[in-house]
Design a protein that fits this description.
Elements: H1 2-41, H2 44-48, E1 62-66, H3 74-90, E2 93-95, H4 114-119, E3 124-132, E4 137-146, E5 155-162, H5 166-182, E6 190-198, E7 201-208, E8 215-216, E9 223-229, E10 235-240, E11 247-250, E12 265-270, E13 276-282, E14 287-293, E15 300-301, E16 307-313, E17 319-324, E18 332-335, E19 338-339, E20 347-355, E21 358-367, E22 370-377, E23 384-385, E24 392-398, E25 404-410, E26 416-421, E27 429-432, E28 437-443
Parallel strand pairs: 1-2, 1-3
Antiparallel strand pairs: 3-4, 4-5, 6-7, 6-28, 7-8, 9-10, 10-11, 12-13, 13-14, 14-15, 16-17, 17-18, 18-19, 20-21, 21-22, 22-23, 24-25, 25-26, 26-27
């Protein structure tokens, strides 16, 4: 009887604890719902606020000189032009105009007049040169002085390459020079891919990191979309022929992943180590995201919204995609199954940037003026905007070194493919007039210098 009495007396206290916990949980839930409702009532501009990176060109950039090319040899002109353009695109340096070059000799074997260039304000001095070595090869040379580190070169290299490798080697020299100056190699020995209309149907395009050599690589009779770089630098994309379902195919090869889906595959992504593959697959409701081995094995569904598309892996292994309802509004960025973008901002095309300051998530959101790019940490926190008042901006892609962001923009100054530095406040630079969708950026196969 005493035991029963104790139980009976303890029960009300226990139920009161449960009731208080339930009330607290309800209060939290009500507060969360209220906050979500308040957020939904706000306009995109109210949520995003004012762009903190204004494009103010008054910031202090390191003065950098690239010695002029006076050689009539085409290889020398190409190498010097590529390296100079790469450094201009970084947005990190004040590249001294050729008109301010001091008088002197600028041949392949001529020494660098450090004193004369220092008098012109140069704090970094670069010399790159090339000349024919024999009928099929070119001798290339790169040299860099970083005056705050003394009068000895911080980079010096001579190499011989085949003629057809001159341009890509120039990009690799620029990457190595950036490494010598900043401690982190550049990402210009790379390429981008995207889809764009070519006549009647969309085609897959590729382009060098500086906008050179843009070209369609798929047949005009096919409908080709959503390209992605895969293992060994191979190109994959979704292709439809004669109105058939979209299939995931490998460009120029016959060994795509063995996917057993009967419905269309809208888009795909490989993990950073190329061991995993994520695909967005059509279904009766809309589409869903599946993940498995890079060969298409052991696929499992990971999304639970009516529509899920545009998967992309983080360097840390997280998986992001766009999810939402069938209506083309209110779509959000999901990371590992959790919505991380604001509910009031209709989001699209996420990408991850592996920067010196950590990994960031960047995506496009609808605003009153079109679309803007925003950036947060990997899980959606610390949201800030990257564009404002510059037309419609979409399909961001990050350079392999994490310093640059490429995206398509339609703006009054001219639509096209733009590159923006994530390391400075400098304005974005246009590298091509081509516009498209599903932009992806990856390093070229092969080792650095």
């Amino acid at each position: 009887m005493q035991l029963v009495s104790r139980v009976r007396s303890a029960a009300p206290s226990r139920w009161r604890q449960i009731a208080r916990a339930a009330a607290a949980a309800l209060a939290v839930l009500t507060g969360a719902l209220g906050a979500a409702a308040q957020e939904a009532e706000q306009s995109p501009e109210e949520i995003l606020g004012v762009l903190p990176i204004t494009g103010d060109v008054s910031e202090r950039l390191t003065p950098l000189a690239i010695l002029p090319s006076l050689s009539p040899e085409l290889e020398d002109v190409i190498v010097r032009g590529v390296v100079r353009r790469d450094f201009e695109l970084t947005g990190m340096f004040n590249v001294i105009p050729d008109a301010k070059a001091p008088e002197g000799l600028y041949g392949f074997d001529d020494p660098v007049d450090i004193k004369a260039w220092s008098a012109r304000g140069a704090e970094v001095i670069i010399k790159v040169a090339a000349r024919q070595n024999d009928a099929s090869t070119v001798k290339m040379f790169g040299l860099c002085y970083f005056l705050s580190h003394g009068r000895e070169p911080v980079f010096q290299k001579t190499l011989v390459v085949k003629k057809e490798q001159v341009r890509i080697t120039a990009h690799r020299i620029a990457d190595a020079l950036l490494g010598a100056i900043t401690g982190r190699n550049g990402g210009f020995s790379s390429h981008l891919t995207f889809s764009a209309r070519a006549g009647k149907n969309p085609a897959i395009y590729t382009v060098d990191s500086d906008g050179h050599n843009i070209r369609a690589v798929t047949a005009a009779s096919d409908t080709s979309v959503a390209p992605v770089w895969g293992p060994s630098g191979l190109l994959y994309y979704a292709r439809s022929r004669n109105y058939s379902p979209f299939r995931f195919v490998q460009h120029g090869g016959s060994s795509p992943p063995n996917l057993s889906f009967g419905d269309s595959i809208y888009s795909a992504a490989f993990s950073a180590d190329y061991k995993k593959l994520a695909v967005a697959v059509a279904n009766a409701e809309g589409s869903s995201v599946w993940v498995g081995g890079a060969d298409g094995s052991n696929m499992r569904k990971v999304s639970n919204t009516e529509v899920a598309t545009h998967p992309v892996f983080s360097p840390s292994g997280k998986l992001a995609w766009i999810g939402g309802g069938v209506a083309h509004v209110g779509h959000r960025v999901y990371v590992d199954g959790k919505a991380v973008s604001p509910a009031a901002l209709s989001a699209s095309a996420p990408t991850f940037c592996d920067t010196e300051d950590g990994v960031f998530l960047i995506y496009s959101v609808a605003t009153g003026a079109g679309r803007d790019l925003v950036m947060s940490n990997e899980t959606g926190g610390n949201l800030s905007r990257l564009t404002q008042g510059e037309g419609s901006n979409a399909y961001p892609a990050c350079s392999p070194d994490g310093r640059l962001l490429a995206y398509f923009s339609s703006r009054s100054s001219g639509s096209g493919l733009y590159i923006k530095s994530l390391k400075s406040k400098q304005p974005a630079q246009k590298i091509s007039s081509q516009v498209g969708q599903s932009l992806r950026w990856a390093a070229l196969p092969g080792s650095a210098l």
